[in-house]
């Protein structure tokens, strides 16, 4: 059995207005091979916006604990394809 992939989408105010609202549609765009492996969770503010020098700019997503800044549906899918 393949390892589950947990994706946390920050839906705090800054992330939401910077594109996090669009990221909530991620499940609809996932390639078939990921649909059963990926758990998508909406999360209150993940606090990465408090240190943009370290983490980058909103919107933020965590994929199995790894932070992705300036996340988009395409960026997340590209990451999944390369890593998993």
Structural class, from helix and strand content? alpha+beta
Mean residue pLDDT: 96
Question: If helices are DSSP runs of H or I spanning 4 or more residues, what is the number of helices?
Answer: 5
Report strand order across the widest sheet: 2-1-3-4
- Can you tell me the overall shape? globular
Total beta strands: 4
Q: H/E series, N to C? A: EHHHEHEEH
How is this structure best described in words?
By secondary structure, the protein is α+β, with helices and mostly antiparallel strands. The relative contact order is 0.27. The protein has helices at about 15-25, 25-30, 30-35, 50-55, 75-84, and strands spanning about 5-10, 40-45, 60-65, 65-70. A hairpin with a 2-residue loop joins strand 3 and strand 4. Helix content is about 40%, strand content about 20%.
Outline of this structure?
This protein has 84 residues and is of the alpha+beta class.
Write the layout of secondary structure elements.
Blueprint: E1 5-10, H1 13-23, H2 26-29, H3 32-35, E2 38-43, H4 52-55, E3 61-63, E4 66-68, H5 73-83
Parallel strand pairs: 1-2
Antiparallel strand pairs: 1-3, 3-4
């Amino acid at each position: 059995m393949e390892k589950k992939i947990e994706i946390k989408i920050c839906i705090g105010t800054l992330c939401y207005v910077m594109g996090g609202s669009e990221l909530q549609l991620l499940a609809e765009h996932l390639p078939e091979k990921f649909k059963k492996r990926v758990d998508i969770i909406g999360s209150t503010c993940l606090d990465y916006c408090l240190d943009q020098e370290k983490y980058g700019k909103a919107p933020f997503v965590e994929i199995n604990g790894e932070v992705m800044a300036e996340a988009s549906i395409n960026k997340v899918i590209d990451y999944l394809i390369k890593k998993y």
